[in-house]
Amino acid sequence: MRTEATQRVELVFSLFDANGNGVIDSDDFDLMTSHVLKAADASDDGAKDAMRAAFNRYWTTLADELDANGDGVITLEEFRPFVLDPARFGPTVADFAKALAALGDPDKDGLIERPLFVSLMTAIGFEDANIHALFDAFGPDAEDRIPVATWEAGIKDFYAPDMAGIPGDHLVGAPTA
Q1: Strands 145-147 and 111-113
Q2: Which pLDDT does position 176 carry in this prediction?
Q3: What is the pLDDT of residues 126-137, one digit of tens each?
Q4: Helix, strand, or coil here: 64?
Q5: Are residues 165 and 155 in contact, defined by beta-carbon separation less than 8 angstroms?
Q6: What is the pLDDT of residues 36-68, one digit of tens each?
Q7: What residues contact residue 94 under an 8 Å CB cut-off, 6+ apart?
Q8: Whole-model pTM?
Q9: CA dist 140 to 98, 146, 157, 167, 176, Å?
Q10: Closest to 150 (Cα-Cα) out of 164, 138, 165, 136
């Protein structure tokens, strides 16, 4: 696994541990779902339901695949070696990427405006400067928008263990210009 992917794993674990208790459990996903849906107040019920289902699938997949001792929580040690395995998590990540990107496009014009992108990414727990660096790396148009497909692909790339030098790397550590 590339160094960049390892750094992304550590960040994703810290974000999924939404309540900060050092492990990931179903309560973390309930909390993150609540935060994200609150930020997506302009989205329709279908988009919100898809996001709920994607978060639920994500938790279920993690619990089924990684909870080695069956205690209902995922430790960093359980999480680290497997979460970026495309064979195990590819379809789950694809559903999550599609649902999250759709929340960013409540008017369904195929474009995501920076303010909503920032709100959704903040709700997940990313740092403001890193969010803006990521958005800029996606190459927004003159009206400060990015295509839904660009964000969806960027989310999938973020979870790919063999990817480096991707826009999502702006989310890890200090933002780069």
Answers
A1: antiparallel
A2: 45
A3: 999 999 999 999
A4: helix
A5: no
A6: 999 999 999 999 999 999 999 999 988 998 888
A7: 156
A8: 0.90
A9: 19, 5, 18, 12, 16
A10: 138
